[in-house]
Design goal:
This protein is α+β, with helices and mostly antiparallel strands. 16% of the residues lie in helices and 31% in strands. The chain contains two helices and ten strands; from the N terminus they run E-H-E-H-E-E-E-E-E-E-E-E. It has a six-stranded antiparallel beta sheet, with no helix packed on it. A four-stranded antiparallel beta sheet has the order 2-3-1-10. A hairpin with a 4-residue loop joins strand 5 and strand 6. Helix 1 packs across helix 2.
Amino acid sequence: MSKNYYYTCPIKALYMMKEFKMFASDKNENLFLRYSLFEPDFKLFRILEELDKIYVAKESEHIFEPKKHDLAGFTRDDGISTIAQYDEAKKAFINGSFRILKKYNPKIIMRDNKQFFMPEVEND
């Protein structure tokens, strides 16, 4: 079973294409959406706006792996939401001196001082 990453918001998808050079496609992986966006493109926005789901192309999925200094948000067992920073040496998100467990599903919210939008996930 493989995972498919997607956005339902065309603004978030365009932002990720522009800022993080993400490639996107529709469900059929049509090539007309598989290019990096360096300048705002309202024609592309209109195309994305028509789609229910804007899929992340397989060659761009690597950008969702944590990188050094990424900030991630997560919710603890007690219901409190907080932030942790990724530590490359420990290969984990760290909040103070505590390692954040994967069960908390930390989602990257900031990379390189830029807002970062994690996609939704569906399984085949």
